[in-house]
Design a protein that fits this description.
about 10% helix, Jelly Rolls, 7 helices, 23 strands, mainly beta, about 375 residues, eleven-stranded mixed sheet
Length: about 375
C-alpha cells in the first residue's frame, strides 16, 4: 500500500518545513591520511611516487587546435589503449553533437586484459550520472558534471595486461566534436588483490506494477535489478534516473541486496529516499542535494506525472563485499506497486576482468519517454 500520505503528513506536521530542511550541495570532508595505528603522517601526494604519470587525449596530432574527434553514425572510436600494469585514475569527456539524445546514443565500453567482452558497457550520459539524457551540474566523490557539460570520472580502474576504451555512435547523426582526456599511471606491479572495475546499464520503461497489489514483498522476485554478477568482489554503488508515469510519491521502495544467496536478501532497506541517504521524500522534491557519497541533484515536477529524478549512492565507506555472487535490487513503490520508468547504472569491482552482460537496449528504447497507461 502506498505510504505517500503518511510521509507527506510528517512534513506538514513540522509547520515551517523550510526551517527543518536545507537545500544546496554540501560536500563531505576527505578523510585524513594516517597509518594503520592512527598516527598522522605525510600524505601520499607529498611522498616519493613509483609510477609513470601519463595521459591519452584527443589532442590535434598536427599541432593545430582541432583537439577533438568526429564520430560518424555507426562508428566505433577507440579513445584509449594501453599495456599494463597500470591504473586509469581520471576520465574527462565533453561533447558537441547535433542530436539532442547523444548522451543516450553514445556508448562507452571498457575492456580489460584483452578480453573480447567488455567490463563496462554504458551509454555515456548514464555512466556519468546523467541517466535521463539531460545535462545538469553536480559533484560527488567519483562522478561529476562540471560547467559547462564536462563529464568526469574519478573511479580507480586497475589493469594488469591492457586496457581499451571505445565510444560507439549508435545515433543517426554525426558527433561533430568528441573531446577526451584520460589520465593513467603505469606501475611496476599491482597488488594481488587489486580488482577490475565494472559498470552495467539497465532499464525498465516501465517497470510493471504487481497486480493485484500486495502488502508484503519478502523474496524480491519482482524488484528492479541494478545488476546481478558472479565472482568475488564488492559493490560500489549506483546511479538511477526515474520518470514518474503517475502522480504521488514514487519512492516507497526498499533496496534488497542478495549476497552469495539469491533465495533471500541479506540487506533490506526502509525506502528509496532512505537508501539515497535523504529522507521524507526529499522534502517533496524541493531540496536537491549533491553530497560526497549520496545525492538527488536533479528533481523536476516532483511527485507528479512526468516528474523526473536523478539519484546516486556510493558505498566507498562500506563496499558491499561478495564471495560468490551479488544481486542488487530495489522495489518500485511499496511491494512493487508502481509502474515508473527506471534507467540505471551499477558500479562494482570483481576479481574477473569481464562478465556476461544482458544485451544493451536498442538506441530508440533508451530515450526517456513518459509511459502513461
Amino acid at each position: 500500500m502506498n505510504n505517500f500520505p503518511r510521509r507527506r503528513g510528517f512534513l506538514r506536521s513540522l509547520g515551517a518545513a523550510g526551517a527543518f530542511l536545507t537545500g544546496g550541495a554540501v560536500s563531505g570532508a576527505q578523510p585524513s591520511t594516517g597509518t594503520a595505528s592512527g598516527i598522522e603522517t605525510v600524505p601520499d601526494y607529498a611522498r616519493l611516487q613509483n609510477h609513470r604519470a601519463l595521459k591519452q587525449s584527443s589532442y590535434d596530432r598536427t599541432g593545430g587546435n582541432r583537439d577533438f574527434w568526429p564520430i560518424a553514425p555507426g562508428q566505433t572510436k577507440e579513445v584509449f589503449q594501453a599495456d599494463g600494469p597500470g591504473i586509469i585514475t581520471h576520465i574527462w569527456f565533453t561533447i558537441n553533437a547535433k542530436s539532442e539524445h547523444h548522451l543516450k546514443e553514445l556508448v562507452m565500453r571498457i575492456y580489460w586484459d584483452g578480453n573480447a567482452k567488455p567490463s563496462v558497457e554504458v551509454p555515456v550520459g548514464d555512466f556519468f550520472g546523467l541517466n535521463l539524457g539531460e545535462y545538469f551540474l553536480y559533484q560527488s566523490a567519483f562522478l561529476n558534471c562540471s560547467s559547462v557539460k564536462a563529464l568526469n570520472s574519478y573511479f580507480a580502474m586497475p589493469f594488469r595486461r591492457s586496457a581499451r576504451i571505445t565510444i560507439n555512435n549508435d545515433g543517426q547523426q554525426p558527433v561533430g566534436s568528441f573531446y577526451s582526456n584520460i589520465d593513467y599511471q603505469l606501475v611496476p606491479s599491482l597488488p594481488a588483490d587489486a580488482l577490475y572495475f565494472h559498470a552495467q546499464y539497465r532499464q525498465a520503461a516501465p517497470v510493471h506494477a504487481v497486480t493485484p497489489a500486495t502488502e508484503t514483498n519478502l523474496d524480491g522476485r519482482n524488484n528492479y535489478v541494478f545488476f546481478d554478477c558472479r565472482g568475488k568482489g564488492q559493490a560500489m554503488g549506483i546511479t538511477l534516473g526515474v520518470i514518474q508515469n503517475s502522480d504521488h510519491w514514487f519512492g516507497e521502495g526498499d533496496e534488497m541486496i542478495f549476497i552469495d544467496d539469491n533465495s533471500k536478501p541479506t540487506i533490506n532497506g526502509t525506502g528509496t529516499e532512505d537508501y539515497f541517504c535523504g529522507a521524507w521524500d526529499f522534502g517533496g522534491g524541493k531540496f536537491p542535494f549533491a553530497n560526497l557519497y549520496n545525492g538527488a541533484p536533479y528533481m523536476l515536477l516532483p511527485e507528479l506525472t512526468n516528474g523526473r529524478y536523478c539519484l546516486y549512492r556510493w558505498h566507498a565507506d562500506n563496499p558491499i563485499a561478495f564471495q560468490q555472487s551479488l544481486k542488487f535490487t530495489i522495489e518500485h513503490g511499496h511491494a512493487n506497486d508502481r509502474s515508473d520508468n527506471y534507467y540505471s547504472v551499477g558500479y562494482w569491482y570483481q576479481s574477473e576482468p569481464f562478465t556476461d552482460f544482458p544485451e544493451l537496449p536498442a538506441v530508440g528504447d533508451r530515450i526517456p519517454v513518459l509511459k502513461v497507461s
